[in-house]
Amino acid sequence: MNNKTIIQINNLHKKFLTGDEEENIIHDLDCTVLAKEVVTVLGVSGTGKSTLLNMIGGIDRPTSGTIVVGDTEITSLSDKQLTGYRRNFVGFVFQFYNLIPSLTAQENVLSALEARRKVSKEDKERANAVLASMGLERKATKFPEQLSGGEQQRVAIARAIIKKPPLILADEPTGNLDPQTGEKIIDVLINHARETDATLLIVTHNPAFSKITDRTLALCDGRFQTYEEA
Questions:
Q1: Which one, of 171, 158, 156, 225, lies nearest residue 202 by Cα?
Q2: What's the CATH superfamily of 5-225?
Q3: Residue % of the chain over a pLDDT of 70
């Protein structure tokens, strides 16, 4: 890890309209994340963890404030520019996998590359290699419904990392898995980040993650608070 900043968040606010009332999900939030850092964003349900991750990933926009990723202020980008940012810079791992049911495991992984270019024979070989590195070498031709929850999540990780993004965002990646499978999934994610010098943010409600990541940011009522390990 070095001292180069990859994420700089300043005075971030996010409001949602619920009926006739505005709800402040994120407010007065400041944060710095260093390149190559593996960070836990910890908080109970409803504290704004996923909302924050979606804003960093360019899926959602803040009500006000700025997010700078690398040298780019993503909060000032157009929708088209945000699409390019997500495609080229960010790998997402979702809690509910978000696999396409009609595609095989290999095809789901390759879908991350299809948005950038025509898939080549080398790309297919690479997808198979990534799946094999996760113990899924015999599952490449299987469809999501033929895979266990842990296998589906590993396919989702393979899809996120095949393009070797500098930034990986994982939203409750073990939320639907048993503890033993979830531990293996986190090991895969962290090991990949270390090997490729990627920055990894893991959003979770599980405080155990704080023991295996570089730093923990505790999110409470839309703000970061000092995290003290029990």
A1: 171
A2: P-loop containing nucleotide triphosphate hydrolases (3.40.50.300)
A3: 96
